[in-house]
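Comment thread on ticket #2218

A.B. wrote:
> Attaching the input chain for the structure job we discussed in standup.
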Amino acid sequence: MKTFNSITLIFSLQTLLFIVSIPSSHSKTFHPNHQSLITFTCSQTPYPNHCLQSLKSHLGSDRADMWGLAGIMLNHVMMVKANTALDKIHQLEDAETTPIQGLVSCYNKYNTILETDIKKATAAFYNEDSNGAEESANDAAYEVSTCENGFPGHFTQENKNMLAASANAAAIFKLLRG
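C.D. wrote:
> Ran it. Output below, let me know if you need it in another format.
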């Protein structure tokens, strides 16, 4: 009977040691106050309500890890917001008989966001380079803020949405670094 108890004890200790030695990357992350990952992540962004609305409306976000949430914010939310703003710019261009300098400038900035900033951030994302992705998302936020300053009031809501998406994406990538 003593041998059986000793073997059971040894087996139990080995099992416990194995469980403790599993790397944290393979375990589920628990967040303060039992918040969901989306709620926790969005609470760390500059526009938490926009973040919550954007991520919760995306199918599958409730099963994503933080990298997945960053990818959704980058490849879906930022992309949609930039394309929506470009559509509005095209509508304003069609309504005008002569080109408006501020409108042309905003078109160029949103084109840069789509063709440069989002593409660079996506490449960094796929290379798991959260720093590079954060920098590119911040570049997009800068581009959109200069658009609003150069052509205020014409599509302010689109600029606000794009700024929130870019700043939130940058914040999530920053969380991934730390």
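A.B. wrote:
> Thanks. Noting for the ticket: The two ends are 51 Å apart (CA to CA).
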